[in-house]
């Protein structure tokens, strides 16, 4: 079992500051995202389910806070790994996140597997502990007594053989500032620790599944090794690390900013030269009385061609959005079981609205339906009860913001094989039109479906 997280409010605050971010990026692609964004994101490689990521965030947050309170009260603190795995696995299975390829079931590619969830738990635990230790060590008193770290031994069954070469590569990048070339020892304030980490952070773990910790090196040994002069004391480097966080998102080229927006959509807010995660959640929006629309996703490049074909205009710079008045009308029209069940439909709930960013990142089919008013677009996607949902969006141009505003959602109990929407990113074929009750028919111009 992993070592318990140190009882610091900083560890709790760091975890609480993270925003669940869904994306199809793998680990190597996430490593290319600026450090400031990675540090403030709760993510897992290739996972787009915001519900699962929020569950991970909530579960870890509760356990870290509980452990801190237990330690503060003089009790033995335990970090329940098995209950974390069980609870998140249950969410993942309910979300339908088991892999389509049977060969991936139970492996690290399976977000519902015990090995994958165990790795997430262990890494989050180790990162919180590493950060708490880093915070403790970054004060002048601690640095005066123990100014350096030694890269500790591995406890893995099969240790990595690349650490020495990585140490020399990291040292070369930072000019061996405060670090030895002959031994894996460096001042606690040396930039080599951030350069050594694949995460860009100066605390352990330094790689996925790494068991190596940092051992304290006292002042006398640091002086004997030539890292310090007899009258020198390192200055805390936390401010430098925070500056590096800020600089990791400054001066980004417009092309790269656009790429980030294409990947993360409305989860990312770009204001001038500032890039940050959008912290205003849909849940907060639904529970408040905000009169301004909330952007929930940008139009993705794969969606733009179909939108242009349907609307007859370029909508690639528009954003999918929701507004309080539309949501209130939607719930009034389609939120009651009393009215929806006799229609063969399922009532729309708040969770359906909360999951919209995730649905927009997934498989969507865009078209138009009979008698649909001008400037409106139809979209279908799978809803969580196993059928298809029909969402109607309205084109709303504006001087500052161009939006596709949600007007309506209907949740049907079955699939819409009778429809012929354009299947985004999939080769077209002729639709098999069936007669399904209560199902609007798409016009012949959109007779393209998933093959």
Find the structural class using helix and strand composition. Answer: alpha+beta
Label the overall shape: elongated
Terminal-residue CA separation: 47 Å
Count of distinct strands:
15
Commentary on this structure:
- By secondary structure, the protein is an alpha+beta fold.
- It has three domains: 1-137, no CATH class; 139-248, no CATH class; 280-446, no CATH class.
- The chain is built from 18 helices and 15 strands.
- The strands form four sheets. Strands 8, 9, 10, 11, 12, 13, 14 and 15 form an eight-stranded mixed sheet that branches.
- Helix 1 (9-16) crosses helix 6 (114-137), helix 4 packs antiparallel against helix 5 and helix 5 (81-94) packs across helix 6 (114-137).
- The longest helix has 24 residues, at 114-137.
- The chain is elongated and about 85 Å long.
- The model is unreliable at 1-7 and 418-451 (pLDDT under 50).
Give the SSE map.
Layout: H1 9-16, E1 19-20, H2 27-30, H3 35-39, E2 41-42, H4 50-72, H5 81-94, H6 114-137, H7 140-145, E3 148-151, H8 163-173, E4 185-187, H9 192-196, E5 214-217, H10 219-224, H11 238-247, H12 254-264, E6 268-271, E7 274-277, H13 282-287, E8 294-298, H14 304-311, E9 319-322, H15 324-334, H16 337-340, E10 345-346, H17 350-354, H18 356-361, E11 365-367, E12 376-382, E13 388-396, E14 403-412, E15 422-423
Helix pairs in contact: 1-4, 1-6, 4-5, 5-6
